[in-house]
Amino acid sequence: MKKCYMNTHMTFVPxxxxxxxxxxxxxxxxxxxxxxxxxxxxxxxxxxxxxxLPLVDLPSANGACEFPSSWTxxxxxxxxxxxxxxxxxxxxxxxxxxxxxRMDDKYVVYDGNCYFCMIINRRHENVxxxxxGLCNPERLNLDGICGLINSDEMLYSVFRVNSTSIPxxxxxxxxxxxxxxxxxxCTTPISLAEKCTDESKLLLxxxxxxxxxxxxxxxxxxxxxxxxxxxxxxxxxxxxxxxSALANEKPYRCFLYEEKPHHQxxxxxxLAQSGDPTCNGLTTVSxxxxxxxxxxxxxxxxxxxxxxxxVTQHHDWHSLDGTKDYHFTNKNATLKIKAQDTDGEVFHxxxxxxxxxxxxxxxxxxxxxxxxxxxxxxxxxxxxxxCMIFHRRDSHIIEIQQSDHxxxxxxxxCSMSDPSMMPYTTLITASLxxxxxxxxxxxxxxxxxxxxxxxxxxxxxxxxxxxxxxKRRTWQETGDEExxxxxxxxxxxxxxQTEMIISNTCxxxxxxxxxxxxxxxxxxxxxxxxxxxxxxxxGLGQTFCFSxxxxxxxxxxxxxxxxxxxxxQELWLSKPSRTCRIETKDEWTYRLSNQGMxxxxxxxxxSAASASSMSQLLFTLSKVAYIAINTLWVLFSR
Length: 638
What we know:
This protein is mostly beta strands. It is built from seven helices and 34 strands. An eight-stranded antiparallel sheet has the order 2-1-8-7-6-5-4-3. The protein has an eight-stranded antiparallel barrel with strand order 9-10-11-12-13-14-15-16.
């Protein structure tokens, strides 16, 4: 029996399972001098060819066919059916399809059962579109399998998940628009669209038209993700989010849009919106699940409305607690507000543009110390019109009232807001001047009471219980009974009466405040004061607001014989606060007894000093007279 010997030095070249042309080229380069041909014996090369030919039709797994690395990431495709329609693309896999062969934008892929041809186009870094051929159980060459795809095959759109947004392609900050959902164009009332602080977002405020079915008042936030041209057509892809507390979804939508000059020189944007997260069916801007006609709005806020001159004479204002900065621009029509946290980091910004002045009464010239206006506010995508009232308290102190609700239309801003319910914000300038303190005099703390007793006298047992609890508290809340004799001097320590001194008897300390401005409203005085500190100039230290209210005298049982002791005047005084309005019941107010006006006490002291001097003079004169009489008596007695 003849034996077959193999060349032990044979080299096995790794084959790349690609198309047949590559395999043939590889085989043609192989040589076989070490294998003598013998009758009846198959040459080893032929054996090798027979062994590897079945491998030719297997999908590629070694990187010879790759998808572009820029596609790598998670993508969304409507109707994909797995993991919320989200799948991954890398250099070898397009979802569950492996790359087998490629030429330009044509790819042969294998999903474990069939071969497909995919014609894939990158429209934008955030958008891929492709058409896909039929399943072929047998692999054909690239031209053969891709030649079966027709141009009218379904176009699939794939959107990148967590993509970077882009500025929306509409030139302008605000627009008016009409829309059509298939039941007619909604034109009256007109709808509004405005760019958010982030230029990639546009807020669409839809108005309901009573004469058009299917229209409703609603607001949607469009975030632009991609734009591209396909021939003459312009496409936009973005997410739409309804401005509703229950709407957390941000579905993708595709838009076909067209820029069209208007006869008045304004640019109009015509849009057709897809009804689902695809770009299918968008062939003209006049057909879509919804069509929109955007027209650039006039920028006429600053030309017809300016903030009061007594506000803008200082371009920079600050809240009492220092957490908000208010800056009025040089044109006096725009206010920018920045809110800061305790670390000084800005976490909230608002841009408020004066829109139009409002009369508070028929003959209001809108130039007094109280001005009402409508303003346009932008904070992120929270956009609308608000009502504002400015109060002049001093040259460097103002108060602002601002409505909480943002109206869609400017004429709704103040009509929907009740001024009595609008909160106050007190603002000061960086540098403050000293002013006369209100209600000057010397006071002594009688007891302590809740702030709601300013307007309502608590009756019976409840009132007495509250007072008994409050008496155990002091200005510093030490609980020492002796501290109830704390004295307060308002405007008594200087000729200009600009200081308030709080003397703590039990700790033998004094806290001094400078008054910087006061105003009275409905019987209550509000005073801006800063704690006197030699380390800081006035206005840069601790700044507070005191609330004061003069109350009529009330009878009190003294405890001796049941007699009542009458006080001529009482002063209710709040603790120093970072706000000027007492809003909660647990804020404490101190009831003070008036010990006399500063000038009355000064006169009394002067009178006492004069009486003492006269008595001393009379005593001296009487003494001199006594000595003189004694001297005369001695002389005459001789």
